[in-house]
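Predict the 3D structure for this chain.
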Amino acid sequence: MKQENFTKNQHYIPQVYLRGFSPEYKPLRKSKLKSSAYTIYAYAIRSEKQLKKAVPIDDICQKKYFYEMKDDDGKFLNPNWIEKGFKCLEDMFSDYRYKLEKKAFNEENYSIKHFLDKEEIVFWLSYISLQVIRLPELLETAQQEVKRLCGDNVSDNDARNFVRRYCIPLFGKVDEKSKETMVFNSIIGPMFPMKIILGVDIEGKLLTSDKTVYIYTDEIPCESYEEVIFPISAQICLVLIGGKKQEGVDHNRLFLIDADLRDYINGCISSAAFNKVYSNHLFSKREMKMIEESRII
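Done. Predicted structure below.
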C-alpha cells in the first residue's frame, strides 16, 4: 500500500465522538452534513483563553501517522491496520450512541430499573478503556517506560512499535494470558465492580476535552475506581461510581443532570484535560472561571 493511500492525519479523539459536542449535531437525526462541516468551540487551558470561532473537528486531536508502525528502514508495517480497527469501533459508537439517545430522551424510562442491557454495558466499558489506551500521553509514557527498562537494547522505533502492538488489542484474537489482555484488563477491570448510571442534560451544555474520560482513584492498581465520568455527547453522560460513594446510588438507572451536577461533571472533565476543553457553544465567563478553578490543585 502506497503511503498516500492511507490515513495521514490520525485522530486520537474520534471525529464521530466530537460531533456529539458540535453545534451542528442533531440527536436522533441522520445527518447529511460532511464530516468537515462539523465544528466545535475550544478553550485553551495554558493560555486560559477560548477561541472566538468554532474550529472544524477534523482539524483537531490528531497526529500524523500516529498509530502506524515502521521497520528499521522507515517502511510502514501493516499500514492503516489500527486505523481500520478504530474505524469499526467508531461505527459501533455511532450506533450505540443513537440507541442511548432513543431511550434517554424518553421520560418513561426514568422508572426503568435496568436501563442499559448487558451488551451496552460491555460496549461502553470497552470503549472507555480503549479511548484511554489510545491517547498519545499514555502511549508515549509507555514508550518511555519500555526504553527505561530496556535501555540501548531497544531502539526508539522498536519501543514505539512494541507499545502499539501490545497496548492496542486490535491485531487479532487476544488470548486471556497475553500481554494485550493484561494491559486492557488493567484499565477495564476496576470498572466492573462499579455502579453505572446515565445522566441526561436537557440543556445540552456538557463539556468534553482532549482526554474525554475522567477517572479518579486513590491508588493504582486497584480493584475498583472511585469514579469514572465519560460524556457521550453534550446531552448524555455515563457515570460510574465505586467505593463508599456507591451508597444510596441505584445501579443502572437513568437520571436528570441538574445545574449543580453539570458543574461538577464539567469541572471533573476540565481538571483531567491535557490542553483543550471543548463545547458546542461559546464558553460563558462562569464556565471559564469553573475551568480555571478546576485546574487548581
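Helices lie at 15-18, 81-104, 118-133, 136-150, 156-167, 179-188, 259-272, 285-294.
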